[in-house]
Automatic annotation (TrEMBL):
It comes from the Bacteria. This is FAD-binding oxidoreductase. The keyword Membrane applies. Keywords: Membrane, Oxidoreductase, Transmembrane, Transmembrane helix. InterPro entries: FAD-dep_OxRdtase. Residues 6-356 form the FAD dependent oxidoreductase domain. The chain crosses the membrane at residues 7-24.
Length: 379
C-alpha cells in the first residue's frame, strides 16, 4: 500500500469513486481510495432503488440535483464506458389521502420556486400516465425529467474509469481515526495501525464518517437507519417511470430486463436492534410489510415472486440533507456524507463538485447551505 498521496478518499461508494474519477480526470496524480469492506460499493451505493430524481427533495438539494440531470446523467454511459441504464421517463409521487396531497403540494410549490418543472396531477391523469396503479390513488406530483438508473453498473463504472486513470483503491482497509500534523488534518490511521498521509483528505464513508470525523473534533449530526430493498422475477413490460409515495412507503421502478426493483420502509426501522453492521439481512416481518406497501399501489404485482431482498444502512442527517464541503475547524478535511437515502441520483455532480472543492475552485452551483458546520451552537 502506498503511504502518501495528494488526496486520500475514505469510502469506496459511488460518491468516493466519482470524486476519485473527476479528480484524476482533472489532473490530480496521486489519489488513494480506502474502502473498509472487501468490495467497492458495498454500502448504500449498491443497496438502493436507483432513483435519479429532483422531485420530493429539500430546496437546498434542488440546484445541484437539477444540474446533474441536465449536465451529467444524459451522457454518463458514454463517459464511463458502461451502460448505467439511465432512463428519463418521469417520476410519480403518489397520494391516497388529502393529507398526502397537501404534503405533495408543498413539495411541488417549493420545487417550482427554484425552477423545477413539476406539477400536481389528479386521479384521472395518474391513470393516464400509468394505468397499472391502484384506483385508490387520488393524486400525485409529476416530474417528467426525473428517472432512474442502475446503481451497481454506475458505481462500478466510476471505479473502473478511476482505476484506468491511475487511482489506487485499497479494500478491507477500515479507518480508525484521523490525525492532525501541525494543526492540519494530514494523516489517516487504519485499524491495523497503518498510517497514510496526504495534503487533503475527503471523508465519504456514510454513517461511519461521524466517528472518524470526531477524531479531529468535527461532529456531523446523523443517525444510522435501515433501508430495505427487494427484486421481483421478470415481469412483462408495464411502465418505465419511477414511482414514489407521499409517505415514502416504497419507491422503485421496472428495470430494463423486466424485474421490479423496490426500496421501502416498513415502519419498524428505528426500533430494530441491528448493532452489528455486517448483518445486512431482511426478515419476514419487514419484507412482508414492504410487499404489502407495494401491492397497495400496484395491485397487479400481488402474485409477483420476490427473488432477492437485502438491506443497508442510511446515513440519516438530522435535517435531511447532506454535509458537503470543507471543515472550517479541521483544515485539510473535506466531507461528503449524510445523504439520507437519496445520494445516488446526485452522485455524479457531487463527485464533480468535490473535485472542484479540493482544487480550491467554486462549485458549479452554490451549496453553502450544506456546510458541514451548519449545526454549530449559535449562543
Amino acid at each position: 500500500m502506498s503511504q502518501t498521496a495528494d488526496i486520500i478518499i475514505i469510502g469506496g461508494g459511488i460518491v468516493g469513486c466519482a470524486a476519485a474519477y473527476y479528480l484524476a480526470k482533472s489532473g490530480t496524480k496521486r489519489v488513494i481510495v480506502l474502502e473498509a469492506t472487501k468490495s467497492i460499493g458495498h454500502g448504500g451505493s449498491c443497496r438502493n432503488g436507483g432513483g435519479v430524481r429532483q422531485s420530493g427533495r429539500d430546496v437546498r438539494e434542488l440546484p445541484y440535483a437539477m444540474y446533474g440531470i441536465q449536465h451529467f446523467w444524459p451522457t454518463l454511459s458514454e463517459e464511463l464506458g458502461v451502460d448505467v441504464e439511465y432512463t428519463q421517463k418521469g417520476n410519480l409521487r403518489l397520494g391516497k389521502t388529502e393529507t398526502h396531497l397537501k404534503k405533495l403540494q408543498t413539495l411541488t410549490d417549493n420545487a417550482q420556486s427554484v425552477g423545477l418543472g413539476v406539477e400536481m396531477v389528479d386521479a384521472a391523469e395518474v391513470q393516464e400516465l400509468c394505468p397499472y396503479l391502484s384506483k385508490d390513488i387520488i393524486g400525485a406530483s409529476w416530474c417528467p425529467t426525473d428517472g432512474h438508473a442502475n446503481p451497481l453498473t454506475t458505481t462500478l463504472g466510476y471505479y473502473k474509469r478511476a482505476l484506468e486513470l491511475g487511482v489506487q483503491f485499497f479494500t478491507d482497509a477500515p479507518v480508525a481515526m484521523l490525525r492532525k500534523i501541525r494543526g492540519k488534518v494530514r494523516q489517516v490511521v487504519l485499524q491495523d495501525g497503518t498510517v497514510l498521509e496526504a495534503e487533503q483528505i475527503l471523508l465519504a464513508a456514510g454513517y461511519e464518517s461521524r466517528a472518524i470525523a470526531r477524531s479531529v473534533g468535527v461532529d456531523l449530526p446523523m443517525t444510522r437507519l435501515i433501508d430495505e430493498m427487494f427484486v421481483t422475477e421478470m415481469e412483462p413490460h408495464m411502465f418505465d417511470i419511477m414511482l414514489g409515495t407521499a409517505d415514502a412507503d416504497f419507491y422503485g421502478h421496472q428495470a430494463h430486463h423486466g424485474s421490479f426493483v423496490f426500496g421501502s420502509e416498513c415502519g419498524y426501522e428505528e426500533v430494530t436492534d441491528m448493532d452489528d453492521p455486517s448483518k445486512l439481512y431482511t426478515n419476514s416481518m419487514t419484507l412482508s410489510a414492504s410487499c404489502r406497501a407495494v401491492m397497495g399501489y400496484i395491485p397487479q404485482l400481488a402474485e409477483a415472486k420476490v427473488v432477492r431482498s437485502w438491506c443497508g444502512w442510511l446515513d440519516n442527517a438530522f435535517d435531511g440533507v447532506p454535509f458537503i464541503g470543507n471543515c472550517p475547524d479541521a483544515e485539510g478535511l473535506t466531507v461528503a456524507c449524510g445523504f439520507t437515502g437519496h445520494g445516488f441520483g446526485t452522485a455524479p455532480v457531487v463527485g464533480y463538485m468535490l473535485s472542484q472543492i479540493l482544487h480550491g475552485e467554486p462549485t458549479v452551483v452554490d451549496i453553502s447551505a450544506l456546510a458541514p458546520n451548519r449545526f454549530m451552537p449559535n449562543k
